[in-house]
Amino acid sequence: MKKFLFDRLMALIGLLVLSPVFLFIALLIRMKMPDGPVLFRQKRVGRYGKLFTLVKFRTMKMGYDGSTVSVAGESRITPLGVVLRKYKLDELPELWNVLIGDMSFVGPRPDVPGYADRLQGKARGILKLRPGITCEATLKYRNEEELLAAQPDPRRYNDEVIYPDKVRINLEYLENHTFIGDIRIILKTLYLLHD
User: Fold this and answer.
1) Orientation angle between helical segments 19-32 and 2-17, nearest 10 degrees
2) Can you point out the beta strands (E) in the chain?
3) CB 3.0 to 4.6 Å from 166: which of 36, 94, 130, 137, for a disulfide?
4) Residues 6+ apart with CB under 8 A from 165
5) Which has the closest alpha carbon to 134: 89, 189, 53, 97?
6) Structure pTM?
7) DSSP state for residue 68 in the 8-state scheme
8) Whole-angstrom distance between the N-terminal and C-terminal Cα of the chain?
9) pLDDT tens across 87-137, in order?
10) Of 49, 40, 25, 39, which Cα lies nearest the Cα of 110?
11) What would the pLDDT profile of 70-86 be if each residue is shown by its tens digit?
12) Which of 141, 47, 52, 50 lies closest to 88, judged by CA?
């Protein structure tokens, strides 16, 4: 309950304080990428396997129906999108998802349905958690797109190396998370964003 109230209060404060930043980014997207919406919406798997709509700032060109695995340097990512993704500014609208209870500040990143379906046995326990904006797995793989770009088969490397490791890290979080531990992860995330 403490975490849930903290999430909602801080998300509300964040949305209010950062509203000028939201407006500025929205105007940039409208000017630099006028061919589509400002926001990107995608169905993700939330707590207990329930689908919800994740909201982010759009960073890609319209009309792409390819892989859900993003790789640095892809032509589908616009120049503005590269900047937004580098500094995680594209994820600011997820504060709305936190405010309405779909997400938490800290928790496993929400998967698209195809990946969540791969969770088997004990690993399905991860779905008991509310998905988050950040977590230890996100921090470990904060340069994931660059790492994937260096692989001959990015999708295979993600499926066979990165994704299983993220599941392992998220299971450790499931078994050991605390409110104080979440605060540490938030602070570590803020520090690494400026590193």
Assistant:
1) 60
2) 39-45, 51-57, 104-106, 132-134
3) 137
4) 137, 140
5) 189
6) 0.90
7) S
8) 32
9) 899 999 999 999 999 999 999 999 988 888 888 889 899 999 999 999 999
10) 49
11) 665 567 788 999 899 98
12) 141
**Residue tagged 């531990």 (tokens):** 181
pLDDT on residue 77: 85
Give the residue carrying structure tokens 């450790």. Answer: 172
Closest by CA to 91, choosing from 62, 59, 120, is: 59
- 2 burial type by CB count under 10 A (0-12 exposed, 13-18 middle, 19+ buried): exposed
pLDDT at 60: 87
Sign of the CA dihedral with 56 first, then 58, 62, and 65 last: negative
What single DSSP character describes residue 124? G
- Residue corresponding to tokens 């602070």: 187
Tokens of 112: 């698209």
Q: Would you state the structure tokens that stand for residue 168, as one six-digit string?
A: 């392992």
Map residue 40 onto helix, strand or coil.
strand
